[in-house]
Amino acid sequence: MGIKKVKPTTPARRRYSVDDFSDVTETKPEKGLIKMKKKQGGRGMYGKITVRHRGGGNKQYYREVDFKRNKFDIPGTIKTIEYDPNRNARIALVFYPDGEKRYIIAPRDLKVDNQIISSKKAVEIKAGNATSLENIPIGMPVYNIELVPGRGGELVRAAGESAKLMAVEGKYAQLRLPSGEVRLVPKESMATIGEVSNADFMHVKIGKAGRKRHLGIKPTVRGKAMNPVDHPHGGGEGGNPIGMKHPKTPWGKPALGVRTRKQNKESNKLIIRRRRKKRR
Fold this sequence. Notes:
about 5% helix; globular; 7-stranded antiparallel sheet; mainly beta; CATH 2.40.50.140; 4-stranded antiparallel sheet
């Protein structure tokens, strides 16, 4: 893909950039692999807002993506590379000899008419092929990785990302994830070889508020701009600081950089090195 800038006819469009979709080969999804996606507006089962700043946005169909890659030892042919409004990576439509069609997360440099295969045994080392971690050479980039064998890929599915296979010892394979975390995953877990497509997604600039609304994201108001009754950061005259040791949520809980992972989580023993702390 590439990033396309537009003619600066307004102040917003001066900072505006869009995806040129040059890698997309089909604009309409496969009818048998889509279903309606109901908007929740950030509300839970009781009708109360549990995730703020959600609502509206364009209507979308959900594409049923094959994260399990469990059609083993049957080669498939890539027919289209498509845009998916539900994720920042591209998806590819695979045709199998028995007539079945499936969507997969497309790796970088995958082309139409390429052949891919998924197998529990060793496969050719090329982008798009899927196999268990124990069959992949050390140092290879992988994505769509299972945490539990047979449950489907859960790790490393975002645009442009990949994990590096560091070692395979005993029951586990050692992976370095995009966050910098090094962790153990069962060596029988399936993973796809390569890097996720659409790496330039991170360079797209939204540019204006209306475009955020089309994405289903509503405006966010700073706590400092509110009254004390509405937010712990609220109140004061002029440009005052928040007036407390650390930031808080609207409900008074610590925010920004606070660890929320349980201290005694069972999978802690599988994490060799914690992820890097993000700079703000």
